[in-house]
Amino acid sequence: MPFSKSPSARMLARADELRRRIEYHNYRYYVLDDPEISDAQYDRLMQSLRALEAEDPQLITPDSPTQRVGAHPVGQLAEVTHQVPMLSLDNAFTEEDVIAFDRRLRERLETSEEIEYAAEPKLDGLAVSFLYESGRLVQAATRGDGMRGEDVTHSVRTIKAVPIALRAGAPLRLEVRGEVFMPVQGFKDMNARALAQGEKIFVNPRNAAAGSIRQLDPQLAAARPLDVFFYGIGQSEGWTPPARHYELLQRLREFGLKISPLVKQVRGVQGVLAYYREMAALRSSLAYEIDGVVYKVDCYAQQRELGFVARAPRWAIAHKFPAHEENTVVRAVEFQVGRTGALTPVARLAPVFVGGVTVSNATLHNMDEVRRKDVRIGDTVVVRRAGDVIPEVVKVILERRPSTAQEVALPTICPVCGSDVERAEGEVIARCSGGLYCAAQRKEALRHFAARRALDIDGLGSKIIDQLIDTPLIDGAPVRSPADLFRLTAPQLASLERMGEKSAANLIAALERSKSTTLARFLYALGIRDVGEATAAALAEHFGSLEALQRASVEDIQEVPDVGPVVASHVHTFLQQMHNRAVIEALREQGVHWPVQTPRRPSAGEGALTGRSFVLTGTLTSMSRDQASARIVALGGKVSSSVSKKTSYVVAGAEPGSKLQKARELGVEVLDEAAFLALLGRVIG
Ligand SMILES: NC(=O)c1ccc[n+]([C@@H]2O[C@H](COP(=O)([O-])OP(=O)(O)OC[C@H]3O[C@@H](n4cnc5c(N)ncnc54)[C@H](O)[C@@H]3O)[C@@H](O)[C@H]2O)c1
Ligand SMILES: [Zn+2]
Fold first, then answer.
1. Quick one: which of 179, 262, 317, 638 has the fewest CB in 10 Å?
2. For residue 41, which atom of ligand 1 is closest to its CA?
3. What was the pLDDT predicted at 635?
4. pLDDT at 427 over 60
5. Catalysed reaction(s) (predicted)?
């Protein structure tokens, strides 16, 4: 055990360490607009430092972050000195903090009366000072370190809500202060565009607003959806300011300056706390983000009496809402299989308190999203939970990536049933192909199987299906697949809740009747992805028997009218799954049957493209690839997915892939869209 240092030396070192960390995060937040920790984490660092300094005031240094506002900017923007300092606000995180604040004020004012407050939403943007001379906007500046900020007149002039000229009656000289922010929808649109163009995206609207305003190029700020609410003044000349803050805001509105419509005059602790609850309830429905509410003593005479401390006025406090964003670590990424077989990556997180609840899972939506955000196991990420929305991983903090971080891999087999996972070309979602067998898809598969247009099992609704898959009925096991339905006996069914003997007997009879079906209904009932009734009917007509379809290759299946490569591959993969085959086999053993059909022959007029094979690449403007395939096949041609010497034509649409290259190498004839349409036209005409 090392010797414990003297307490003051230890506290000194700790205060030093906290200051260094806070300075670093101030720099990232105020100068780079790219924070590395969440606001809540930052607030905790500040609270720790405040607590230390309160314990031993000798620890306070003049340059401690508790004594100063923000950070001094080091950008290329010109510096502006604030005539009246732009301060920060003290924070309250609990009702107790607010009660203590109000008590302190009444003690200082030596009053037993309730204080009147102006209560305002606390916009989450950045503070800007706007100087109007003779009613015209002459300068706009950021807060910076409170004493000196940056000249941002060029970008502020592009904000439509900031008047270039005030209305008549405005004082000769007026410095107004307000919050510039980005509405949530504008922020999302902007990030979506940035993403599409491979540009940097912002974590939240606040950083986006700050980043936009501090751009050197006013064109950039002009393109960003910025807005403003004005909430106070700095220096002014040539008028008598009102006696109350609330009245001041009304005057500012008369001058043409935008004031939050949510500002209210309230009385005492009860008044402010009621306002807090009202705004907390409104929070998620507002078009912009608020991170709390601000209470300001309404009467300016009282404000003057109360004065300031180092970095904030004594007469105001920001009452913060629970944070919407927190940082935490991704411990693992697991895949959940939905009822339609879709695999969703889910991040397992070190539990974190955010948006008022403890969150330990967050959806990653799909693999494209995982790649785009580059989320790896072991990463520190920003997690967001706003309102009742599902928690989401917003971004990875790359600076915190450990060398052991692991990339996320899409499993090749379903984590629930072990069937192959398929992800069709161009599709975002990966799916389990074990539709008939997979426990995750069981309920949906049974519901679909029994539906009227499938096997039409009268009386087998969702409620009974729920019971069947939860109750061990058959040899101690619940129903696992459609084949199990036909093993059920009337007494077993009658033992289910709300199921009399009569209904049980009816259901057994319905099951019996459903055994006699058609191949088309049966294929539809299997619930193969993208195989609706029409496709099922086309498959049945084309192949005539289930055996023929089971033997068919992807190319063979593509010969069916209206079946393109994607659907063909779904059908093929589904029928190749061992577990699916076993269920189909069991269904037939249980007596499910259909009349044999004769396979379809091409009718007159068709067959004009017989013997010719096509490969499609790129995008056609007049039809989809599947439609093009269908047209070719309807005329007797074949469509395959890869180019070989035997290929008759490669049809190349816009932005063709490597297949075009291959065609040229092999000397295969290439048709552009016009030539392809001409060929179809010639053949038909
Ligand atoms: N994540 C990080 O690394 C990091 C770093 C530094 C700061 N921060 C965040 O910034 C906060 C500190 O920043 P701050 O000093 O700007 O304090 P603040 O944001 O807590 O409060 C002061 C600011 O509130 C704004 N405001 C919004 N509505 C207002 C209204 N109606 N009336 C008056 N002011 C209003 C003004 O811009 C004012 O300057 C921290 O609590 C933290 O959340 C985060
Ligand atoms: Zn599965």
1. 262
2. 1
3. 77
4. yes
5. NAD(+) + (deoxyribonucleotide)n-3'-hydroxyl + 5'-phospho-(deoxyribonucleotide)m = (deoxyribonucleotide)n+m + AMP + beta-nicotinamide D-nucleotide
Q: Does the active-site annotation cover 463?
A: no
* Prediction ipTM score: 0.96
| Domain that residue 349 falls in | 325-407
Among 20, 31, 33, 39, the mutation site with the greatest number of ligand 1 atoms within 8 A of its Cβ is: 39
Residue by residue, DSSP assigns 610-668 as TT-EEEEESB-SSS-HHHHHHHHHHTT-EE-SS--TT--EEEE-BS--HHHHHHHHHT-
254 is in an annotated binding site: no
Residues 375 and 430 in one domain: no
Of 122, 264, 638, 659, catalytic: 122
Q: How far is the CA of 205 from the centre of ligand 1 (A)?
A: 13
Tell me the C-alpha distance between 321 and 448, whole Å: 46
Q: What is the DSSP letter of 19?
A: H
CATH number at residue 629: 3.40.50.10190
Residue nearest to atom 11 of ligand 1 (CA): 39
Ligand nearest to C-alpha 264: 1
Rounded to 10°, the helix 95-109/268-282 angle is 150
> For residues 114-147, b (16+ Cβ closer than 10 Å) or e, as one string?
ebbbbbbbbbbbbbbbbbbeebebebbbbbbbbe
Split into its structural domains, the chain has a count of 5
Q: Which of 384, 407, 430 is the last residue of a domain?
A: 407
pLDDT band of residue 601 (cuts 50, 70, 90) is low
Find the 27 Cα to ligand 1 centroid distance in Å.
14
CATH assignment at residue 148: 3.30.470.30
Whether 120 is in the pocket of ligand 1, judged by its Cβ within 6 Å, is: yes
Determine which residue's CA is closest to atom 41 belonging to ligand 1: 43
Cβ–ligand 1 distance for 123 under 6 Å, the answer yes
The pTM of this model reads: 0.71
Query: What is the chain's alpha carbon radius of gyration, rounded to the nearest angstrom?
Result: 35
Q: Are 394 and 537 contained in the same domain? A: no
Tokens of 345: 């990556």
Q: Which residue's CA is minimally distant from atom 20 of ligand 1?
A: 89
